[in-house]
Amino acid sequence: MLSIDTNATIPEALERLVPILDHIAIDVKAPLSDFSKYAAVTGMSVEFAKRILPRIRRGILVASSVPFLELRTTLVPGLVACGEVLEIVEGLEKLLSGTASGRVIYVVQQFIPYEGVRGVYSRLPRTPSEVVKKCAEEVASRTSLFEVYYRTLEEGSRPASTTPSSSLRHRRL
Question: The pTM is what?
Answer without folding.
Answer: 0.89
